[in-house]
Amino acid sequence: MSGPLVVVAGPTAAGKTALGAALAERLGGEVISADAFAVYRGMDIGTAKPPVELRQRIPHHLIDIADPRETYSAGAFVRDARLAIASIQARGRVPVVVGGTHFYVRALLHGLFAEPPKDPGLRERLEAEWEADPASVRARLQGLDPEAAARIPPRDRQRTLRALEVGLVAGRPMSELWRAQQASLPAFEHVMLGIVPPRGELHARIETRVGSMLLAGLLGEVRSLLLQGVPRGAQALKAIGYRECARVLDGEWSVDRARDEMIVATRRLAKRQQTWLRSEPAVEWLAGFGEAVVDEVVALLEARRGPDARARQGTG
User: Fold this and answer.
1) Helices marked H in the chain — which ranges?
2) Does the pLDDT value for residue 218 go beyond 90?
3) CB of 98 closer than 8 Å to CB of 31
4) Is the pLDDT of residue 269 over 90?
5) Which of 40, 87, 111, 266 gives a 20 to 30 Å CA spacing to 76?
6) If 0-12 CB within 10 Å is exposed, 13-18 middle and 19+ buried, where does residue 136 land?
């Protein structure tokens, strides 16, 4: 590869989008979105996609590339991101990977571990067990793979069952398989930037963002997706905001209830994102939000990348 990636990571609402775009502009680069839901067309408000005018000024990749009726996978992301990186670097520009789906970031940097083959019969039995008693399934995962149980949210049925299935088929915890993969060299030379905002300020920003999404028409966006035939069980509609608004449209919840649930779920997501980031090696930590830390980052990259970085400033 012709140069290192710049990876902007951190909790939701910390200003990753603004920082990534500002860095791309300063360094002569292009942004690669690492967001599991921004890939879907028609999901703009709830995924906080960069504004169209920003994307017109600074090239953004892997946004609006998938149909929300289909499932976009980590494997597809790695494939598409590698193609985007090669294209960006071939133009002599800097790839800036931005996003909160850290599973995607990890897969890009370290590769996806070789999973054992799926066992449909075992998966069917695990699904039946989950329907009967989710708590017992979680307890089973805790006994088999405590690390995965700590990492996967208790109500995340899909990831819980997959971790159990992998562990039972492979005869080794999925977390152990992951660690073996992580021990390999990263696929790309990279600089990992970790945004660490003050907790109270982050929570306030999350609350403001949720309110703004509802005012901007998130309910209408979800209604439109359902009218287009996106099934209720689609991966896309598992995103925070979409699942809550679907319950409002079904008459189960009030808008106020949905707003409160969205805030709680987003705070939990932010906490998981920060936990993941702390587990990453060689992170350059940044205290603040978004564009406020651009100068600090540029100076850091200049020191690490030498005079070529200075020569690229202002060329984007």
Assistant:
1) 16-27, 52-57, 74-90, 102-110, 120-132, 134-144, 146-151, 157-170, 174-182, 199-215, 218-227, 242-249, 255-279, 294-305, 307-312
2) yes
3) yes
4) yes
5) 266
6) exposed
Report how far residue 95's alpha carbon sits from residue 21's, in angstroms, rounded to the nearest whole number. 11
Type of residue found at 180: A
Residue 305 pLDDT level (bands cut at 50, 70, 90): low
Model confidence at 184: pLDDT above 60:
no
**196 Cβ contact list (under 8 Å, min separation 6):** 10, 274, 277, 285, 286, 287
Main-chain phi, psi angles of 35, to 5 degrees: -125, 120
Domains in the chain, CATH or no CATH each: 5-111+184-312 (3.40.50.300), 120-181 (1.10.20.140)
- Tokens representing 7? 């990876």
Within 8 A by CB and 6+ apart from 222, the residues are 46, 237, 241, 242, 245, 246, 249
- Partner residues linked to 29 by β-bridges: 94
Does residue 150 or residue 315 have the better pLDDT? Answer: 150
